[in-house]
Predict the 3D structure of the following.
Amino acid sequence: MLVVEGIVKGYKESHGLFKKSHKAVLKGVSLAVKQGECVGLIGESGSGKSTLGKIILGIETADAGTISFNGKTSKKAYEKEISVVFQDYTSSVNPRFRVTDVIGEALGESITCKNEKRAYILSLLEEVGLSEAFSERYAHELSGGQLQRVCIARAIATKPKFILLDEAVSSLDVSVQLQILELLKNLKEKHNLSYLFITHDVMCVTYLCDRVIFFKEGECVESVEKMEDLKHISHPYSVSLLKAVEALEIPDFC
Ligand SMILES: Nc1ncnc2c1ncn2[C@@H]1O[C@H](COP(=O)(O)OP(=O)(O)OP(=O)(O)O)[C@@H](O)[C@H]1O
Ligand SMILES: [Mg+2]
């Protein structure tokens, strides 16, 4: 479905007035996401995960490499089939918009009948676990978890086949994280969605993903095809990420 091949991306960096250097952010990234599959892309801050996401979405252009979606290589041809949920739900939603307008904006002119549009928006809210009462609330009147549910409703409004989730639960506290992960899991099964789940959190990956790719300094360093194989990873970087999670576990004496 989504095939990323040999993506290279760099930025110019300024050091003082005249000195400029080239910073390689992505160094030939290749990966694929099949229909109905959730692939986790896990890596430390600054490793280039969001840059890869932006290239997939067509917000940034790659210096080399190709993205194809169901065989289509032009972003114009596949943009209707993909969607995104970002970490920063507060800046991805206009706080002065009512919930109904946040979702309605994504629909554009695709539904012209007002009543039909309203009924569809209410059905989307119901899908993400929000009652009709939320539709008239302003975005700034919602909690982080509720707002992220609205962002998910907006993301599925256009009936995409693939959703890029860039740190979609990272700003939420752990109990709300779990609720949103559960929602994402249910939506994936119901609509046979594919996800690329970008994160730096191994626990979230084990909860939601079918496969995981470890990402370091712009490169895929290891991939795990089945989550039960996580214990057999060998790259020192992947091992150190897993060890960090183990260290967070509550010690026996508590
Ligand atoms: N538009 C840009 N201009 C210059 N450098 C950029 C630009 N966008 C990203 N970078 C640099 O590319 C590198 C990778 O950034 P990116 O946002 O992709 O990392 P990330 O893995 O998503 O990190 P995080 O986990 O913190 O979100 C960083 O060093 C960043 O400063
Ligand atoms: Mg990022």
